[in-house]
Design a protein that fits this description.
By secondary structure, the protein is α/β, with parallel strands linked by helices. Helix content is 53%, strand content 9%. The termini are far apart.
Length: 590
């Protein structure tokens, strides 16, 4: 219900809901009112004797300026025409003003904030504006950004997505620090990365293994992104707690397995694909499940086949299947047989724990067969996991160097294409013409290089910009890029296409590894400067490999020391030297 009436100018005040907030020059409007009077009434709602102008802020500013200059038209001296509405109706109508005027979103944020500051609840604001409470919460979160962040957003320095990323913290000083750290390159993935340092994604392997309920029960905190849906909307703020809980849970698994009577339990690395080498499965007499166990087995199998099952359900189902299958396969072993055998447990990259019971060492080969086996194993003192680790380090270091050197990336691309064209059959080289991106969270912490998060952020930023509807749109977009951005995109694509990683030391990719050496020399990769072997890596080495490494570093006579002592001694030496193990040293020496 609205009505038009006349109200003294002194009783009119700008309402917080006013979208424009009366910005800009009003000289032209003053001239129009002075000659033609006020053609449109001010839109107001009443608060006591005060008329709150929610639409017409510039007219109000012009009227007050004319009054101050004593040039107000005579017909307005006693009062100005206003259209009075109910407050809720006025708020809803102000949404139309946002759309009609094409105002910057920052003005909308501030208008909502002004209503909150006047004592309106988010529910009432949502009802008045015709939006749900989640949308109100999002807008108020944006309105609470540091003034410098809002001003930079309104000035067009970065996108709405980047502004939303800043809301991950309410600490204005931290927001300012991140803005400065971005150094003019303010992209949503980069802002999120900086604000979530020291946090854990619930999708990471240790978080999945621990489980949300256990983490929360231990006092773990959460950071919720109001602008993201699903599991990605949450981060766990205490990564140290996640690691401690995972260690404790794994220790409990080991304890329970030993209580079953197994002679040993070995915890494998996530990417240890050669775990069964040299072992054989011990089989006992088959054991049948009772009716209750069979029902539990069938229910667990059904959960694993159900696409909509949650992470917790999948983990519980997998554990049930592993336990019951172990009973069926190894339940018939005698206590002596179990004491001579053991268990491998492995937490994979997805956080799923696999338990493999009933393994024992194969009998040692003798004679000529033993000599061949020793000769084949001699060059590989760091195992399959160590070999994967080293080849990953070399690949990642070269990828990072390519991102920084577009000219080298161009040479790598053209040379690789030329090499493939010069041969009738594919050569199996190091460069694949695809750029899918690599999730750093899937790489064990000890195998990550310091710069890996940088290029994944660059990749995420380009993914936000690149058109995905059609190749034609993408082509036109790339053609229109400035030269320096084309060069960055080329370097990123070549770097992401690089893959010379080898999963096993006995399954080499000689052509890819040879090409990687060429790329490393072209980009000037310094492997010794990019990565230092730590105790975690060195512990994977055999005693012979550790002694040989210490000898290379000038340390003699430690042959009788325990392996843990050899690891500590070598770790201290290589931390300040440029020593590299195995395949990396040979690559550098090429």
């Amino acid at each position: 219900m609205s009505d038009i009436r006349t109200i003294p100018l002194a009783a009119c005040k700008l309402a917080p809901e006013n979208a424009r907030q009366a910005r800009g020059d009003v000289a032209g409007l003053m001239a129009s009112i002075a000659s033609e009077s006020l053609l449109d009434p001010l839109h107001v709602y009443l608060e006591g004797k005060v008329a709150m102008v929610w639409d017409g802020g510039r007219r109000l500013k012009a009227l007050k300026a004319l009054h101050k200059a004593r040039k107000l038209p005579a017909d307005l001296a006693e009062g100005v025409p206003v259209l009075v509405s109910e407050k809720d109706a006025a708020c809803r109508q102000s949404v139309v003003t946002f759309v009609r005027e094409g105002l910057h979103p920052a003005r909308e944020f501030k208008a909502y904030k002004a209503m909150l500051d006047k004592g309106e609840s988010p529910e009432r604001i949502g009802a008045a504006m015709g939006v749900d409470t989640r949308r109100v919460a999002q807008i108020l979160k944006l309105a609470n950004l540091a003034p410098e962040i809002l001003d930079a957003f309104e000035a067009g320095d970065f996108s709405l997505g980047a502004a939303q990323a800043f809301t991950l913290t309410d600490d204005h000083e931290r927001q300012r620090q991140v803005l400065a750290a971005c150094q003019g390159w303010v992209q949503a993935p980069r802002v999120r990365q900086l604000l979530q340092q020291g946090m854990t994604s619930p999708r990471e392997r240790l978080a999945r293994f621990v489980g949300r309920e256990a983490y929360e029960a231990a006092g773990g905190g959460f950071l919720v992104d109001l602008f993201t849906e699903g599991e990605e909307a949450e981060a766990w703020t205490d990564s140290g707690l996640v690691e401690r809980l995972a260690t404790e849970k794994m220790a409990k698994v080991v304890e329970d397995l030993k209580a079953e009577g197994w002679g040993w339990v070995e915890v494998l690395e996530p990417y240890d694909f050669g775990w069964g080498h040299g072992y054989e499965r011990v089989s006992g007499s088959p054991v049948e499940l009772d009716a209750e166990e069979q029902a539990a087995y069938d229910a667990a199998a059904e959960v694993l086949e159900h696409e909509g099952a949650g992470v917790g359900e999948l983990d519980a189902a997998a554990e049930t299947l592993a336990r019951l299958e172990a009973k069926m396969e190894a339940g018939g072993l005698t206590a002596e047989e179990k004491a001579e055998a053991g268990v491998f447990i492995q937490l994979d990259a997805g956080g799923l724990l696999t338990i493999r019971r009933g393994y024992r060492k194969r009998p040692e080969a003798t004679g000529e067969a033993a000599g061949k086996k020793a000769q084949a194993a001699a060059p590989h003192g760091w195992g399959h996991t160590g070999h994967w680790h080293m080849t990953h380090i070399a690949t990642a270091a070269t990828r990072h160097a390519l991102l920084k050197d577009p000219a080298a990336a161009y040479d790598v691309l053209v040379a690789s294409l030329a090499w493939e064209m010069s041969h009738a059959m594919p050569r199996g080289g190091a460069l694949k013409l695809q750029a899918r991106g690599v999730r750093v969270s899937d790489i064990p912490a000890e195998a990550r290089l310091a710069g890996e998060a940088d290029w994944t952020s660059v990749f995420a930023a380009w993914r936000e910009r690149l058109p995905t509807e059609s190749f034609e749109d993408c082509f036109d977009f790339v053609v229109g890029l400035p030269a320096e951005e084309k060069a960055e995109l080329l370097a990123l694509g070549v770097g992401l296409g690089l893959d010379a990683v080898e999963l096993r030391h006995d399954q080499r990719r000689s052509e890819a590894w040879r090409q990687l050496g060429v790329f490393m020399r072209r980009t000037g990769v310094d492997l010794a400067g990019a990565w230092r072997p730590d105790a975690t890596f060195l512990a994977r080495g055999t005693r012979d490999a550790l002694v040989e490494a210490l000898s290379a570093e000038g340390v003699t006579g430690p042959q009788k020391a325990r392996k843990s002592e050899l690891v500590s001694l070598l770790a201290a030496k290589v931390a300040v030297s440029r020593w590299l193990p195995g395949v990396l040293a040979r690559q550098v020496a090429r």
